[in-house]
Every structure is written in structure tokens, then in C-alpha cells.
Design a protein that fits this description.
29% of the residues lie in helices and 27% in strands. By secondary structure, it is of the alpha/beta class.
Length: 379
């Protein structure tokens, strides 16, 4: 298929809402993303041509299917954020097909094990998540439930593994909140060790159910390789991996050879994975579970290279001030939201010059775009 010049057909596109650009050719989608990048970021410097994905389909390594008991039937499908509804789909053009198949098997097994589905008041099962390591093929599955009894849970997990040989871990996660896809509750491992392993840029990473991991591993390698090359790491550099997640960016950068690596994140599960990932890759590192204010209080080492990969809301104001006060030689900002990136660059320009702006298409089929920006200290 000529992805650049042909539309990617999806009969659920108008109902789901997750993809906003499937009515366009991929070439046209990329043009719109470039226009958005230039509009928002062009005042800071030249915006380089966006790096496209060779095959912009079936790239999402993490899939989540919501379940809700409704009027004698179980709705099973993708969450629609516009109204909180469920879109019943039998095929998603963007999701990894094997991970999606695991979720569908869980749904089919509910009747056999006589497991009830949540109806906003009572019931057990709320949603199922599966994540696949593209390099290793390993799959992790998390079944998210209320805090009710889960009879024969281990037997259920064992049968799921029997049906899908690549499933290496099955967990149960408790969600007693009103948020449908919330996954920060108590976790019980029903099968395996509670994590899978994947490989990015030549480094191995342990991924647990609740930790953040980029959803498009193919383009993530492009993104992280670009960011690390921008930083031009030397053996004299002390690296800070802020909003570190499971430590991917910092560990990949430190593999080039550096004097030290420190990272912080507010997610305790992700930080635990980051520490193990550093050990797994033979990297000496200090990963802290802290928000940016707490990290600033604890940090005494001068970092001359800082990476930041914050959530869509962008960097906290106090972290930007920390960067301006700390004065690293190079600051590499990885952003999934050009609006908040532009806001933050306007603050950082007090002490930094923007040297390079490189968009990477991490989310084909949507209006979202990832951007890596290299900044160097003025003076």
C-alpha cells in the first residue's frame, strides 16, 4: 500500500474519536502537522521536516478495552473520551493485533469463569490492558477490577497464557474510582513476574503494568536516537533524566559513556523499573521517586546535560526555573504537545538559545505530534 497517497480505511473512525486524520492521506496528515509545528514553534527557530513513519498502522504497543454491563449485555470496546461511552470495535487500524487479540480472549473467558462486569454500581471487571514488546514479542496483560472477589484468578491467568503463548505476565489491578481507565490501584501478579522486557536503541527495558512506556516503539527509537545525538554526550557529562519514567532516555544516553546519570519521576512503579533497568544495562544511576520540587531539594550534583520528557501538560514552572538556575550546558526537551512546548520555550529563552527543532510522527492517524528541541546555554 502507498501510505503517503492513499487513505487508511477504518469504518470506526467517525465513531471512536481516537483517530482524527484517517480521512486524509498520510502525506496530507504530515503537512498539517508541519503547519501546526511551524505556527507554534517557528518563532523559536527553523523547524526541520517531520520524520514520518514508514508504515503508519498497527503501531500501538498498548491497548485498553473498557467493559460495562448495560441492559442485559456487555459493552466491550474502546473508550470514547468525548462522552465517556464505549465504541464496540472488532478491528483497530492503529493497535497491535496480537495485544488486541489477548484483550478479546479475556472478554470471551469472562462467561466461562462466571465473572461479572461492572455496571457503575456493582460487578467485578472494568477493563483489560495488554502491552507487547515489539522487539521481544513478550506480552503483559492487566485485568482491572473493582475490589470484589475474583474467584479462580490464577486459573484464569494460566488459561490465558495457554491460549496466548507470548503472554509472560498477568496481573489484577484494583480500580475503585470513577475514572474508567485508572490503573494506579493495588496490583496482584497472577502469573509471571509482573513485567515484560523490551529493547530500544540497543538497551533492554523492564516494563510493568503501571509504568509509562512510549506507545510507538518503532518511532520511539527514532525519537530517542535523535534526542541523544542532539545532546552529544561525552564521558565528562553528568546527565539528568527528568520525568524519567522507566529510565529509557537517560539509560540510552548514558550508554554513550558519561560521568553520571540521575533521574526523577513521581511514579514509584516507574522509578522502581528505572533502577532495575539501569542495573540490567550495566549503568550506574541514581533514580529518585520525587516531584520536581522535591528533587531540587535533594539534588547537589551539577548536571551539565538535562533531558526532559514531561506529560502533555508540559514542565512545571518550578522545574523550568530550576533549569534556568542550574544552568546546564545543553537541555534537550522531548515534547508530545507543541502548545505546552511553545509555552515552556518562551520561559527558557531567558537563558537558552534554541539550536534545533525536530518533529517526529509518533502518532499517525491523529493530530498529535512529538517534538525534540535542543537548547544551549547563552553566553
Amino acid at each position: 500500500m502507498d501510505y503517503m497517497n492513499e487513505k487508511r480505511e477504518c469504518r470506526f473512525a467517525g465513531k471512536c474519536g481516537a483517530c482524527q486524520t484517517l480521512n486524509l492521506t498520510y502525506d496530507r496528515e504530515l503537512s498539517l502537522k508541519m503547519k501546526k509545528e511551524i505556527t507554534l514553534l517557528g518563532r523559536f527557530g527553523h523547524v526541520e521536516e517531520i520524520i514520518p513513519m514508514e508504515k503508519p498502522v498497527y503501531y500501538r504497543n498498548k491497548v485498553q478495552y473498557l467493559m460495562k454491563y448495560n441492559g442485559g449485555r456487555v459493552n466491550f470496546g474502546l473508550y470514547r473520551s468525548s462522552d465517556g461511552g464505549i465504541v464496540n470495535v472488532d478491528h483497530c487500524l492503529m493497535e497491535d493485533r496480537e495485544a488486541s487479540s489477548v484483550c478479546r480472549t479475556v472478554r470471551k473467558m469472562l462467561d466461562k469463569y462466571k465473572l461479572t462486569v461492572f455496571d457503575c454500581r456493582k460487578g467485578l471487571v472494568r477493563h483489560v490492558m495488554a502491552r507487547r514488546g515489539f522487539a521481544t514479542g513478550e506480552i503483559l496483560c492487566a485485568i482491572v477490577t473493582t475490589d470484589g472477589s475474583f474467584p479462580n484468578a490464577e486459573e484464569f491467568a494460566a488459561e490465558l497464557v495457554q491460549r496466548h503463548k507470548n503472554v509472560k505476565s498477568v496481573s489484577r489491578i484494583i480500580n475503585t474510582t470513577e475514572t474508567p481507565l485508572w490503573m494506579n490501584g493495588e496490583e496482584t501478579v497472577l502469573y509471571g513476574e509482573g513485567f515484560i522486557t523490551d529493547i530500544l536503541c540497543g538497551c533492554s527495558f523492564r516494563i510493568s503494568a503501571k509504568s509509562f512506556y512510549q506507545i510507538n516503539p518503532i518511532q520511539t527509537e527514532v525519537l530517542y536516537d535523535t534526542a541523544v545525538k542532539m545532546a552529544k554526550i561525552t564521558e565528562k557529562d553528568y546527565i539528568l533524566d527528568s520525568y524519567c519514567g522507566i529510565g529509557t532516555v537517560g539509560i540510552i544516553a548514558a550508554k554513550q559513556g558519561c560521568a553520571g546519570l540521575t533521574g526523577f519521576d513521581v511514579n514509584a512503579d516507574a522509578v522502581a523499573d528505572a533502577r532495575r533497568n539501569a542495573e540490567l544495562n550495566g549503568i550506574k544511576a541514581d533514580f529518585l521517586c520525587a516531584n520536581d520540587k522535591a528533587f531540587e531539594m535533594k539534588n547537589r550534583q551539577h548536571m551539565n546535560v538535562i533531558f526532559a520528557d514531561p506529560p502533555r501538560a508540559g514542565c512545571e514552572k518550578r522545574f523550568l526555573q530550576f533549569v534556568l538556575n542550574h544552568k546546564p550546558e545543553r537541555f534537550v526537551y522531548i515534547s508530545c504537545n507543541p502548545e505546552t512546548l511553545a509555552r515552556d520555550l518562551a520561559v527558557l529563552k531567558q537563558g537558552y538559545d534554541v539550536k534545533r527543532i525536530q518533529p517526529v510522527d509518533m502518532f499517525p492517524g491523529t493530530s498529535h505530534v512529538e517534538t525534540t528541541v535542543l537548547m544551549s546555554r547563552k553566553g
